[in-house]
Write a structure and sequence with these properties.
- The protein is an alpha/beta fold and about 450 residues long.
- It folds into two domains: about 20-375, 3-Layer(aba) Sandwich (Alkaline Phosphatase, subunit A), CATH 3.40.720.10; about 380-455, Arylsulfatase, C-terminal domain (2-Layer Sandwich).
- Helices cover about 30% and strands about 15% of the residues.
- It contains 13 helices and 17 strands.
- The strands form four sheets. Strands 1, 2, 4, 5, 6, 7, 10, 11 and 12 form a nine-stranded mixed sheet that branches. Strands 13-14-15-16 form a four-stranded antiparallel sheet, with helices on one face. A two-stranded antiparallel ribbon has the order 3-17.
- Helix 7 runs parallel beside helix 9 (about 250-270) and helix 8 packs across helix 9 (about 250-270).
- The chain is globular and about 60 Å long.
Length: about 450
């Protein structure tokens, strides 16, 4: 009788234990701050993401910790700033820094070290199934998702982009070495990569509908090569008018495919009865790519300045929306937030303890409960000691409405008031020299604290 009583008590406790929420983390590649309808796009049509904003908190000042892909991805997985990780550029560029420029960039880490504790490792230790689908770009095979806490890896490789978005996703058309996307070998002619990656994610959702799941679907779209579905691109070509910010029909088609597939994910959550048990995050890894592709600018981050690779706002500001069932009810947060914040945020929402060690992020849970709330953060820091078509080596800091950039080639300081001048057109460094020097000192103190690497004179 005693054993029966204990069994009934244990069963009652299990029945009362709160269900662990699933997590679906959708990350676009190179999606700019103005590329969605909800964020002011004037050509792109994104009805699913726009509707999602009605039940999520939409962040208007969401920053990536880096203006390029791999460092931001590492910051999401670890909650640490790329400067602290010494992972400040993508793998291929870490191997071959330019030697014909005034400065020699530092030899950065070309992978995410196995010693770092990732989100997947924390979730798996808590009983979750963990899955990565899509772009990885955080090291060679010995650092693939399977070694970083993921039970599944579909498509994640050392490469940052496919040779083509159409099956068989391989060849040597755009990049020097042959590339392919593994685990997708049974496709059909005409199959589109964004659709197929969604198919793979949906299959994982179906398979693990009855157990807690951490699933990150990190699309390759809208990275180059700029290849939309031809029939969709043709439709957008007819919509382009003089004076529009967005003028690339194939890019617009890629954005539409991203939105369409995001809608498929939300629909399947509803069909499986999982929508009320699933945290959904949508973001991008850096600002939009503003350089040309086959004679056309890829995107335009207006009213923000510049784009991918730059520490101006267009390079590090991205669309971010988070839905927390039972908590978020729509709303807009203007609080500056960072990609390092996803780590503590997701753990708090899932009721999991953070692992020991230094983290750079803050939980966004207070903003999800009340979008008008603030965060107890004094400053946001950025460090990109490398070259890119949009920049030379640079660091920056944002304190309140003020932002300072320090360029290393000539020690130039630029100072902007982002409230009065969100497009960063009016440099106030010479008008506000004391403020500029104080912010520079604050930036240098942080760089020393995280043991940042610096470029050296050639």
């Amino acid at each position: 009788m005693r054993f029966l009583s204990l069994f009934l008590i244990a069963a009652a406790c299990l029945a009362q234990a709160p269900k662990k929420p699933n997590v679906l983390f959708v990350l676009a590649d190179d999606l700019g701050a103005s590329d969605l309808g909800a964020y002011g796009a004037d050509l792109h049509q994104t009805p699913n993401l726009d509707r999602f904003a009605d039940s999520a908190v939409r962040f208007t000042q969401s920053y990536t910790a880096s203006p390029v892909c791999s460092p931001t991805r590492a910051s999401i997985l670890t909650g640490k700033h790329p400067a602290r990780l010494h992972l400040t550029i993508w793998r291929e560029a870490a191997h071959n820094p330019p030697t014909n420029r005034p400065l020699l960039p530092p030899r950065a880490m070309d992978h995410l070290p196995l010693e770092e504790v990732t989100l997947a490792e924390v979730f798996r230790a808590a009983g979750y199934k963990t899955a990565h689908v899509g772009k990885w770009h955080l090291g060679t095979a010995e650092y693939y998702p399977q070694t970083q806490g993921f039970d599944y890896n579909v498509g994640g490789t050392l490469w940052g982009a496919p040779q083509t978005f159409f099956f068989p996703y391989s060849g040597d058309r755009y990049f020097r070495e042959p590339r392919y996307v593994p685990h997708l070998e049974d496709g059909k002619t005409g199959e589109y990569l964004t659709d197929r990656l969604t198919d793979e994610a949906l299959a994982i959702l179906d398979r693990h509908r009855a157990e807690p799941l951490y699933l990150q679907l990190w699309y390759h779209t809208v990275h180059t090569p700029i290849e939309g579905k031809p029939e969709v691109a043709a439709r957008y070509q007819q919509k382009i008018r003089e004076g529009m910010n967005h003028v690339n029909a194939h890019y617009a088609a890629m954005v539409e495919s991203l939105d369409e597939n995001f809608g498929r994910l939300l629909k399947r959550l509803d069909e499986l009865g999982l929508a009320d048990d699933t945290i959904v995050v949508f973001s991008s890894d850096n600002g939009g790519f503003v350089n040309d592709w086959q004679g056309l600018p890829v995107t335009n981050n207006a009213p923000l300045r510049s784009g991918k690779g730059s520490l101006y706002e267009g390079g590090v500001r991205v669309p971010t929306m988070i839905r927390w069932p039972g908590v978020t009810r729509g709303g807009v947060s203007d609080e500056p937030v960072s990609s390092v914040d996803f780590f503590p945020t997701l753990l708090e929402m899932a009721g999991l303890a953070a692992p020991a060690g230094v983290r750079d992020g803050l939980s966004l849970a207070p903003l999800l409960r009340d979008p008008r709330a603030g965060l107890d953060r004094a400053a946001l820091f950025f460090h990109y000691p490398h070259y890119y078509p949009t920049t030379s080596p640079v660091s920056s800091v944002r304190v309140g409405e003020w932002k300072l950039l320090e360029y290393y080639e000539d020690s130039r300081l630029e100072l902007y008031n982002l409230v009065a001048d969100p497009s960063e057109k009016s440099d106030l460094a010479k008008k506000e020299p004391e403020r500029a020097q104080a912010m520079r000192a604050r930036l240098q103190e942080w760089l020393t604290q995280v043991d940042a690497q610096f470029p050296l004179p050639h």
